[in-house]
Design goal:
Blueprint lengths: L1 H4 L5 H16 L4 E6 L2 E6 L3 H13 L11 E5 L5 H8 L4 E5 L3 H13 L5 E5 L2 E3 L3 E8 L17 E11 H12 L4 E5 L5 H6 L11 E5 L8 H9 L3 E4 L6 E6 L13
Length: about 260
């Protein structure tokens, strides 16, 4: 019932969350569809608590709130597409999503398909770090925490290793900037501790086409938010107040955009 009362979300979303909360206890399904904006996101039965928390972080709590009107969004570490759905529901015209883990990728593809009416949503099955190649990707029991180089404490949660493609962050940013063709480019990075090697290991010039960036930082990473911010400041980005203490928020200064689309209904 608490889901139905949360007025931060459209009524249809609240109703579907309540239905999912009830159905998983009485008539379990592999996935639970939740309407949001022009499409649907999916919560998995096996990782329901994690997916609900991830959805709340990206959507309900509006951790990545900004102006998405007609923007191109680069989602590095896309999980199951909750941030991408939030961006599209708030006006983004295009999403480029990177996700290497196979189970998350399957759900992400289903989510993206439901939002493709009038929106270009491209999925890249790859991890992102400072350099390209192939690497072992450590898969955890829950649907988050998968990492290229997890901390030793994660060993007890590891359930497998996948060999994945890794794309250099500089190439990822260059491709998204070319795709944006003058539109605002908003980047979200959540790569479970690899934010340090990826960002500090890439030239500041790689960020020149980026209008705004959100970087989720992790306590086991080899650097902190201040070091990442200092690197991005060299690219002309300015640190601004963040909606969440674990998310570094930076923006390129410029005139505000107008003509914002209405909120999802």
């Amino acid at each position: 019932m608490q889901s139905l009362l949360d007025r931060r979300l459209p009524f249809s979303t609240r109703l579907d969350l309540l239905t999912a909360d009830t159905r998983r206890r009485r008539a379990a399904r592999e996935l639970y569809a939740v309407r949001y904006g022009p499409g649907r996101v999916y919560l998995s039965h096996d990782d329901y608590a994690v997916d609900r928390a991830s959805f709340a972080f990206a959507v309900t709590e509006a951790t990545y709130a900004t102006d998405y009107d007609c923007a191109v969004v680069l989602d590095v570490g896309a999980h199951k597409g909750y941030f991408g759905a939030y961006a599209v529901a708030h006006g983004a015209s295009s999403v480029v999503a990177y996700e290497p883990e196979s189970a998350n990728l399957a759900v992400l593809e289903r989510t993206a398909m439901s939002y493709r009416d009038g929106v270009e949503w491209t999925i890249c099955p790859a991890a992102v770090d400072a350099t390209s190649g192939r690497s072992d990707f450590h898969v955890m029991r829950a649907s988050w925490g998968h990492a290229l180089e997890p901390p030793e404490a994660f060993a007890e949660h590891e359930v497998g290793v996948e060999s994945v493609e890794v794309e250099a962050l500089a190439d990822t940013l260059a491709g998204a900037a070319a795709h944006s063709a003058g539109r605002r480019l908003v980047v979200k990075v959540n790569i479970e501790g690899a934010e340090c090697s990826a960002i500090l290991g890439s030239a500041p010039s790689a960020w020149e086409g980026v209008s705004e960036v959100f970087v989720e930082t992790h306590p086991w990473a080899s650097c902190g938010a201040d070091e990442i911010a200092a690197q991005l400041e060299l690219a002309g980005l300015t640190r601004v107040e963040s909606a969440h203490p674990a998310v570094l928020h930076m923006r390129r200064e410029g005139p505000p955009r107008s003509g914002r689309r209405s909120d999802p209904t």
